[in-house]
Amino acid sequence: MPIGDPGRTHAILAKYGLTSKKSLGQNFLTAPTILQDIAQTANLSSADDVLEIGPGIGSLTEQLAQNAHQVLALEIDQRLLPVLKETLATYTNVKVLNQDVLKSDLATLIRQNFDGQHAIKVVANLPYYITTPILLRLLESGVAFSQIVVMMQREVADRVAAAPGSKIYGSLSIAIQYQMAVKLALTVPKTAFMPQPKVDSAIVSLTRRQNKINIAADEQLFTRVVKGSFAQRRKSLWNNLLALFGKTAATKEALTAVLKQVDIDPGVRAERLSVTDFVRLTNAIGDNPNL
Fold first, then answer.
1. SS3 194
2. Fewest 10 Å CB contacts: which of 135, 190, 192, 225?
3. Range of the domain at 31
4. Which residues of the chain register pLDDT less than 50?
């Protein structure tokens, strides 16, 4: 019987006297078919090493271990370490570390625990309350994850996948789509969890872009420009850029020249610009000595 079977999950929690911690956003997935779907979405094979964030009692970890070469799971809740030691005892290709992903040096962890001969993927059921910080941490880690398959709140998944022009398209959409191709793989009903959350979830697959035609020459500036452009969504790109770079006559003249150079209307709102538009805008700003 798989760990994610409702009966077995109840038995494990009862044996250890465990309840979910709201402070850690714990919701145990008790739907074996969905757990299998997550692993299948990641296209796992013996050619892959996997980083899992928040293994819980090992329901998803079990599926990963059955398909991947090696699994490294980061669990912040010390109460779950003896549980994982028991539930995953038969899997010799799993290592569990009591670490907080937001405080970990992921590049060092990967180097120390994987052999460097396999593709590295992230597969996880993310806590709702820190989904965005974790996603950004993964992308900023310097690790070239070939694929990231994560379950998250459906509302956040929609923001990640949003297209230009959408009211939910924003800096998060751009930060992720700049590096990764986004696909909403599956919607997961709240009834699949214990305890049951208030909203539905979604499995999102992020696949690293192999050929980034449009690359920001200065990626820190790119991030700054994107965030600044969305600082006040209801304002025009022009007003947000002035707030970002200053309202001097020289700045206004430089921004006018830059926007003309990249053929972007100053009166447009940031939500209308594509990732490519932001790359072109950033590179033009970087090339202008007055900005």
1. strand
2. 190
3. 6-208
4. none
